[in-house]
Design brief:
alpha+beta; 7 strands; four-stranded antiparallel sheet; Aminopeptidase
Amino acid sequence: MSPFIRRARQGDWYRITEIRLGVKENVLSDPRRVTIDHYIWFRDNPGVWVWEETGDILGFSASDTRDGNIWALFVDPRHERRGIGRPLFEKALDVLRQDGHRTAWLTTQPGSRAEGFYRAAGWTVIGHSLKGELIFHGVLSKE
């Protein structure tokens, strides 16, 4: 079965949580900060998007149309460096574009591979969060 990106469904919460809690960088310091209610809102509104391959979810992304934030972009550590993150990132950006956003932002841990990923995508660090994360800003127009 070929890999594809699809919108997350109700039963995907467990696997998405497993991926989020299994990452080696940008570790969630308090797993209670991301609840089932958060997931349900994102799933039902702008959408959580998953990379599915041979019946298994290998990564996911979500963007927040309320403020232009990339809320999540994570790949199962066993499947990193296979080109899964880039299409999931683009899907999250497309959701924001379709909602009328021209720019987006996100935060990530300094010195992480994610930092290099976002810099390579042309995003710019515009500051630091209260938790010391880098705040990135990106332009969404494809002009």
